[in-house]
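Hey, resending since the last one bounced:
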Amino acid sequence: MDFVELEAIEGLRWSWNAWPTTKNEVSSLVIPLSIMCTPLMQSTDLPILPYDPQICTHCAAVLNPYARVDYQSRIWDCPFCYNRNRFPISYSGIGETNLPAELFPTYNAVEYKIDKVDSKFGSNLHLGYGWSNGFSSSNMSLSSMSVGTPRNNGGAGAGGEVKGFVGPVPAFVFVVDACMVEEELRAVKNELLLVVEQLPENALVGLITFDAMVRVYDLGFSDCSRVVVFHGGREVSSEQTQQFLGINSTKWGQQQLGKTPVIQKLGFLLPVSECEFNFTTAIEEICSLAVVMPGHRPQRCTGAAISVAVGLLEGCSVNTGARIMIFTSGPATLGPGIVVGSDLSDAIRTHGDLINGHAPNYTKSCSFYNQLSKRLSDASVVLDLFACSPDQVGAAEFKGPVESSGGFMMLGELFESVQFRKCLRQIFSRDEDGHLKMYFDATIEVVTTKDVRICGALGPCVSLRKKNSIVSDRETGEGGTYKWKLGTLTNRTCIAFFFEVCDEQRAEPGSAFLVQFITRYRHGNLGVRKRVMTAARRWAENKSPEITAGFDQETAASVMARLAIYRAERFFARDVVRWMDDSLISFASKFGDYIQEDPSSFRLSSNFSLYPQFMYYLRRSQFIDVFNCTPDETAFFQLMLNREGVVGSLIMIQPTLFQYSFDGPPVPVLLDVRSISADVILLFDSYFNVVIHYGSKIAHWRKLGYHKDPNHENLRKLLEAPELDAQQLVMERVPAPKLIKCDQHSSQARFLLAKLNPSVTQNSTYIDGSEIILTDDLSLQDFMDHLQALSVRV
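The structure tokens again:
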């Protein structure tokens, strides 16, 4: 069974592709029943359907290929709850030879392009547009199914409505740290000016700067620079923010159904077409006003600035898609969300301080940002963090709202770097239709058959606490619901969902069960779309070969990594490692073939054999072993793992290593110190770092300039090959990984040596001229020996 091919069809990876029928049997599997779902996975065969989906009136499942259809009476039976539903009149032509695309057996995933905008926007372009006059098997053309969306060329009218535009508009509030040094501030301003040029004319923009004070720019006032100033040391509520800015907020629940939401005529949030000159002028005039006393850090009120930005968006009722983008170069030293005091004698917190309770501001600041997370979710606002500083900036405290809103986090050293420019431009890139590649205001709903219960989800999502009969009382991560909210998501965003079996009425082995994921989101043009993914698997008897054959060890490793991170945020690292070890021993004891009390007899079949190796590298990874990492770095690593798919997660857990030599094309080699050789080049990819490691002989020849000699063309090609592959890796990822070039025995080689299996150490008796690693860590072989010995015990 090729799990990668299945993922390309369904957008899903299952830890177990056949499920036992009872809770006791499921608990004996050790690895939980879970699905890694990539809601918007790119697919060339995905049909875009320009009409509304047919929804079951009982369980809210969407019509799918597993439904039973009575063509004569135009009725379909829901495969989830067996409720009978009648097709609307637009499906009058349905038949065995004239099927809508959602019933095609090959379309496990379809996307509905809903022409009408939600009723709260008062726009309905194509009411009555249905399957029969849009898309059927007799007139199907996937590539031609596109419906135009009117473009806004106007701004907010005098009465407060957005004139010349039907439907919602995106909003962007840029929050700039005015405490940066002049060179860094100039780099940020230059990039923001380029961003504004790329924004749609109808996009709303706002500008806030902060140091010891928070300044909100009135972009509608042309006579001079006009700002509203907030004291950075005080926590200001949403209502107070709106009162000071002169905003009369109208909540969504108070609006009349079917009426267009009123976006007030305010200078703090205006369409680009109306304020481009004023916005550009304001950006150019930003300068550092902070006076830094000797021996002190700048007075920086980051938390207050974010709170004001959220209050602004809440007051303007922009509940359809907005981003708050923070650009900062240091930690908050003032007001809510403070990270460290301004006195340089107060060292910024480390992992040791967090463990020992010596970080007095951490708990209170995290509580403040967690409260912001709720406000961001309710207002459908995304929080992005761009931080460039040689020191920490408080990303560990920021992690909550950034992750829960699906926001972007970049930690770098300089805003003048290529990495920052690439990240920002990638976020504001456009698709082939000219729309921003941004998807806002998303929800994911899960529907299952009656024998399956939903436990929760781990990833960039927030539980909406909506319960029904398929929601389990046992929660994992964001649980207690069948529906989750996402501020934004990308084609790579992946969420892990966890399930359990309900054995009140035991399912029949061999019968099928279904799981459906319904993702509703706003496209780059802010039109509403629904992606529906439906998948079926079979129940299996306990100890059935179907269960073992359906185990996906790569997905299992990714799921366990997320669970380990979830535990690491709540328990000490040693307790997490102990939990991982206990789980692995139970797993090996369950699925290994061995004679009791005989470790040498222990064997794992091929579809289980790599899993212990993944767990070995996970134990040593920066996600669990935080030695030599700051809390900010750990927060960034964990945030990235929690949204990456199976392939990316595995690279983070167990990096890849390729060898380049004169003997032929590059080949993958073991992630082991024995793979280092004097006459080869190694390309190491740990997702966050890409290392080109030159053997000592290759490095010597390069320094002598042999590669410039036409007689040594092979050496030139050998040196070029890993550089081209490394550049490709750097280009594909956002944020871009750090590219490191190093020679054998050089100091930079530590980035490679720290991740290699230490099979040869200073304690090895037979070295044979091999590279050695100075460490007391267990090697993979020693780890496996211990695992085998513990697994075969009675």
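The first strand starts at residue 12 and ends at 14.

Sorry for the duplicate.
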